[in-house]
TrEMBL record:
Matches recorded under InterPro entries: CYTH_domain (IPR023577)
UniProt lineage: Bacteria, Bacillati, Bacillota, Bacilli, Bacillales
Signal peptide: 1-24
Coiled coil regions in record: none
Pfam families in alphabetical order: CYTH
Cell membrane found in the keyword field: no
Record bears the keyword Signal: yes
Residue span(s) of domain CYTH: 34-158
Species of provenance: Terribacillus halophilus
Gene3D superfamilies linked to this entry: Hypothetical Protein Pfu-838710-001 (2.40.320.10)
UniProt keyword list: Signal
Protein name per the record: CYTH domain-containing protein
Length: 266
């Protein structure tokens, strides 16, 4: 009874001293922007020519897998499960991503807010992908792991172990977006797509820092140039500048597919 009285007194004191104080509201989602262009690799005689065109230097090599059911149920509902294994003694990571390809970014952000996502969640990344003719919002979360023999760059992966990892690490907000039981049941049916062999480079294009990725899968090759900025106006300027320059050089691919599509559609 005494403890209760003290608690009541403290509450009354707070109300008296801070009568106009209000609890801080969650901050709004303020996404970053990534400008992306697929390149026409046929315009370069060799990979070295492609790399040199963007004044790029080698950064790292990795293998990329996607996980989905044989009929790609997750993808149809805009879920992405990605596993990346890096060459050498580097990390392994898995990414959970929710995309909104058929919505304007503002509408997608509003929907995310309805699912209790907000700008104070530092473990989630909010981003608008700016590809020619289309901007799309996404939410992603990455989990990093130490090198593991069951997820091996050279010798492949233990599929069951990988799926167990995706299940165990799935963020609550991600697995509950639709229904948790459905999510887990669907994940149990997942199979790997890939791996794609990826080489990443750091370069420069039109005096702007650029990331260059070259992907190889099933005898085909794609290349993407990209850069990130937190400023929406800067992203628009970069997109226009690069679009014009790449078109003038004849380096802009007519197929602006996603890297996910490059793997999962083959």
């Amino acid at each position: 009874m005494k403890k209760l009285s003290i608690a009541v007194l403290i509450a009354l004191l707070l109300i008296t001293v801070f009568p106009t104080m209000s609890f801080a509201e969650d901050s709004p989602i303020n996404p970053g922007h990534e400008v992306k262009f697929m390149l026409d690799v046929s315009q370069f005689a060799t990979t070295d020519d492609l790399v040199n065109a963007f004044h790029a230097s080698h950064d790292e090599d990795l293998k990329v897998y996607y996980f989905d059911t044989p009929d790609q149920i997750f993808r149809k509902l805009n879920y992405v499960h990605r596993l990346r294994i890096y060459d050498g003694d580097k990390k392994t990571d898995i990414t959970y991503k929710k995309t909104f390809p058929d919505q304007a970014p503002s509408d997608a952000i509003a929907e995310a807010a309805e699912h209790d996502f907000h700008g104070d969640m530092s473990n989630y990344k909010y981003e608008i992908d700016k590809k020619p003719g289309k901007d799309s919002f996404s939410i992603s979360r990455k989990e990093k792991f130490n090198k593991n023999d069951k997820l091996n760059y050279d010798n492949g992966i233990d599929i069951k172990y990988a799926l167990d990892l995706f299940r165990e690490e799935a963020p609550k907000k991600y697995r509950n977006w639709d229904d948790q039981d459905w999510y887990y049941d669907t994940l149990e049916q997942a199979v790997p797509y890939g791996p794609a062999a990826v080489s990443k480079f750091e370069g420069n294009y039109e005096d702007i820092d650029a990331d260059l990725e070259i992907w190889h899968y099933k005898g085909e090759t794609i290349a993407e140039i990209s850069t990130k900025t937190d400023d929406a106006d800067d992203a628009d300027v970069i997109q226009e500048k690069w679009s014009e320059a790449l078109a003038n050089e004849g380096w802009l691919s007519t197929n602006q597919q996603s890297k996910t599509s490059f793997v999962m559609d083959r």
